[in-house]
């Protein structure tokens, strides 16, 4: 697929690398990032904690009793295991029939419904509640498999770092806008027509109801704003065949082909090894950060805790916009690998800092640094992989391999975190992740330069 690639959108031809196509792709981050901010990172963890306010910390589910944080960690790890298994099968089929968009839509809509279903999340129906949580999580990450695989199809190599960073920046900005609305609903429920009554209990009930409504706003936002991306993006680049039983496991076969090709591509193989290790720690921290803050930081009153945690998430998101831009410029100047090494070093120091932090101010400082490196490591991790790919039309299989590596890493990271949390505490679990960032740095330093290039 050399030269210009023209993609059909209705009756209009859109050239690869065109501004409209790139912006439409990046806009999906605006649509789906509200999930990571409200559900994964802020209001849902706070709401989940309120369910245990007057109860024992242990919760019964699936025939076991465990800590509330361990339960959510296990369900999260299981979800990523399912995504890791399904994504190569579905992406292989999507590549074969030439319709990535159909699968991307399916996961998007599944996630949207899951978010809306969280309105009814309750300990009295814990298994149904966890199903909705599962749907939201699998919908978000499942759609990303196909979203990421579009990048080399719609952007040239010199555009990929900047458009990847733009996507993350749009996501952070859009998700912050919705979170501000949700924050206002939670902190000032009377402004939105909630009955706050005249007692502290009725006010707290109104705030909890506002949290539940916020889950609906996430699902609706995700559903509505994804439509522009789906309208502009092409179906995909593929063979255009129909799905048959013979190609059901075509994706797994293609992963074997990619694995064989990686053995001949030392640069890409070594980068993937490094990505697997440091991404394991990054994604685990991002998934448990608010649960850690809720349990381990001395906030004072419950109201101060809710406000403090949401402010921390806002700090992370706002700083992350700047972080993604700075990282993109740093990679242009110093190279992708050197920039990733520095980012991993900052993450490594943050693990040590988190072990000792106790006060809200210390948590805010950590949030600022997390925001600085969070957007950078995600954006640059994705675009570096895209730039290291060999010349191929089969980008879906390569990105499926990338996503499987990321998901398996998350499963391992979350499982280790849950085990250490169950037998010890969350501080020791966070400190343990230091090892993975150190390993990521050592592996990144082993990524060879491309012949004829002064830097990666």
Polypeptide structure, described:
The chain is mainly alpha-helical and 456 residues long. It has 16 helices and 4 strands. The longest helix is centred in the middle third of the chain and has 33 residues, at 200-232. The chain starts with 5 loop residues before the first strand and ends in a 12-residue tail after the last helix. The model is unreliable at 1-6 (pLDDT under 50).
Please give the structural blueprint.
Blueprint: E1 6-9, E2 12-15, H1 19-41, H2 43-50, E3 58-61, E4 64-67, H3 68-97, H4 100-117, H5 126-149, H6 151-154, H7 157-187, H8 200-232, H9 250-262, H10 266-296, H11 302-334, H12 336-356, H13 360-388, H14 395-423, H15 426-432, H16 434-444
Antiparallel strand pairs: 1-2, 3-4
Question: What is this entry, summarized?
Answer:
The protein has 456 residues and is mostly helical. The chain has helices spanning 19-41, 43-50, 68-97, 100-117, 126-149, 151-154, 157-187, 200-232, 250-262, 266-296, 302-334, 336-356, 360-388, 395-423, 426-432, 434-444; strands spanning 6-9, 12-15, 58-61, 64-67.
